[in-house]
UniProtKB/TrEMBL annotation, chain A:
Residues 2-239 form the ABC transporter domain. It comes from Hymenobacter cavernae. Pfam families: ABC_tran. GO terms for molecular function: ATP binding. SMART domains: AAA. This is Phosphonate ABC transporter ATP-binding protein. Keywords: ATP-binding, Nucleotide-binding, Transport. The keyword Coiled coil does not apply.
Automatic annotation (TrEMBL), chain B:
This is ABC transporter permease. InterPro entries: Permease_MalE. The chain crosses the membrane at residues 33-61, 134-159, 180-204, 224-242. Pfam families: MlaE. It comes from the Bacteria. It comes from Hymenobacter cavernae. The keyword Chaperone does not apply. Keywords: Membrane, Transmembrane, Transmembrane helix.
């Protein structure tokens, strides 16, 4: 479980995070939802330690991360796996080497054979067992995301962070990536935090959703509650998606047949 | 200016705190040594051989006094090569090739979040990415400078003898006259200092790139410009201090 308490961050006097307090639960896909510029990425960077919050604390399973000793932070970081928006694969390494990299760096006690077995397992888990020898430039965007996931889970991470895992992907591949993240979260009982503004992801894997708006947490709940949330900013955000609007209308007006009957020409 | 210099020093310090395992850094240094050293042999060979040749021809052209022995040409080629041309020109060439490569490579890694990926894994990205490049440069620059010295003197020999400016015997007699071994040491010290300046400045420029492809290009250009200025300043200081 990751606990965020009163995290604040400003750039040149402009507040980006204005006292965020929330909890990311273990064994669930926790979604950080919000429009562009609402502070989702900054919050994520504060959580993983790429930025330091001005005020507030971040706790990983009871261990304080913010302002703790370098060794403690280092220990927590080694339990973190992250899927970056652009995948952030190392250009000079093959898919296999990319997946093996954290094992080589973080677990020197592993033998070469153990590493190979683990990499092969992870690549198979994400459906890329035959792509090990390919370079990142030779694979598609969806495959890159899969390699990113394989690299993140290779060292048995406890916390998985995904920064817009669906960006730049077609809807079908997006759903597959969402499903993969969801499966992995439950399979390994890890704490997964996903930044998204994709309503498909909300509907598919939103077990715990936190909505951010202008650096504030305005709502949290799950995918079953979100359509009935009474927060104007959240409603505006959700129903800006035409598919969600249509689905809501179908639901409210007694099913698709009723709407079609209503729109039939009379006489 | 002072702030940038302070940031540069902090950057160098961050490289040395929380270092990665020796085995990892050693392997990375070897990889970088190949990229920095072996891949630069061709350009260094071409440049130094021609500089030696041109130096020889031009000295011969200016040395018209019949009282001055022809062997003086060989002597002057040797002195100019060892003291200045081989270490300084080679380092300036390498600032263009290696410096832009370091800045461009690190800049691209930064803007594509590869540096962040290392940091999230708990790896000291400065230590992992920059330290091996600096150490490899400091190992390979002196070797390339030695190669440049040899080829430059050889270039002078070929140009001098083939153009008929002097005989082979006169040239060899010239390059053996009043040889001071310390000059070689001085040249190698210069090579090590220049290597540090080129690699550290380029790494700093690349490591803190922000933005996109345009900024990566700007970082590479800035790395080369600043490295060359630093080489020339250091050259002057070292000449005053060590000679």
């Amino acid at each position: 479980m990751i606990e965020i308490h009163n995290v604040q961050k400003a750039f040149d006097g402009n507040p980006v995070l204005r006292g965020i307090t929330c909890t990311f639960e273990t064994g669930k896909c926790n979604l950080l939802l919000g429009g562009s510029g609402t502070g989702k990425s900054v919050l994520l960077q504060c959580i993983v330690g790429l930025m330091k919050p001005d005020i507030g604390s971040i706790t990983f399973d009871g261990t304080v991360f913010t302002n703790n000793k370098v060794g403690v932070r280092q220990e927590i970081r080694r339990k973190i796996g992250m899927l970056f928006q652009g995948s952030a694969l190392f250009d000079s390494m093959t898919v296999f080497e990319n997946t093996e990299f954290p094992l080589k760096m973080l677990t020197p006690e592993m033998t070469k054979e153990e590493r190979r077995d683990r990499v092969e397992f992870c690549l198979k888990r994400v459906g890329l067992e035959n792509a090990g020898n390919k370079m990142p430039s030779e694979i598609s965007g969806g495959m890159k995301k899969r390699v990113g996931i394989a690299r993140a889970i290779a060292p048995n991470c406890t916390y998985l962070f995904c920064d817009e895992p669906n960006s730049g992907l077609d809807p079908l591949t997006s759903i597959k990536i969402d499903e993969l993240i969801h499966e992995i979260t439950h399979e390994y009982n890890i704490t997964t935090v996903i930044i998204t503004h994709d309503m498909n992801s909300v509907v598919e894997i939103g077990e715990h959703i936190i909505f951010l708006h202008k650096g504030l947490k305005l709502w949290d709940g799950n995918k079953d509650e979100i359509l009935n949330a009474q927060v104007p900013e959240l409603k505006e955000f959700i129903f800006s998606n035409s598919l969600v609007r249509a689905a809501k209308r179908v639901d409210d007006e007694g099913g698709l047949e009723a709407i079609l009957a209503e729109t039939q020409p009379q006489g | 200016m002072v702030k940038t210099f302070g940031e540069f020093l902090l950057f160098l310090q961050s490289m040395l705190t929380r270092k990665e395992r020796f085995k990892v850094l050693f392997q990375r240094t070897l990889d970088e040594a190949v990229l920095i050293g072996v891949d630069s042999v061709f350009i260094v060979a071409i440049v130094s051989a021609f500089i030696g040749a041109v130096t020889c021809v031009q000295i011969a052209y200016n040395l018209t006094n019949p009282l001055i022995p022809k062997s003086t040409i060989g002597y002057m080629v040797r002195e100019m090569t060892i003291l200045e041309l081989a270490p300084t020109i080679t380092s300036i060439v390498l600032a263009g090739k290696v410096g832009s490569s370091i800045a461009g490579g690190l800049g691209t890694m930064r803007i594509t979040e590869q540096v962040s990926a290392l940091e999230v894994m708990g790896i000291n990205s400065a230590s992992y990415l920059v330290l091996p490049r600096i150490v490899a440069s400091m190992l390979m620059f002196p070797l390339l400078v030695i190669l440049a010295m040899a080829l430059s003197i050889l270039g002078g020999y070929l140009a001098g003898t083939l153009s008929g400016a002097m005989s082979a015997q006169e040239y060899i007699e010239g390059i053996r006259t009043d040889f001071i071994p310390y000059n070689i040491v001085f040249a190698l010290i210069k090579a090590v200092v220049f290597a540090f300046l080129v690699s550290a400045i380029s790494a700093y420029k690349g490591f803190f790139t922000q933005g996109g492809a345009l900024e990566v290009g700007a970082a590479s250009t800035g790395a080369v410009t600043n490295s060359i200025i630093a080489i020339l300043l250091a050259d002057f200081v070292l000449a005053n201090v060590l000679l």
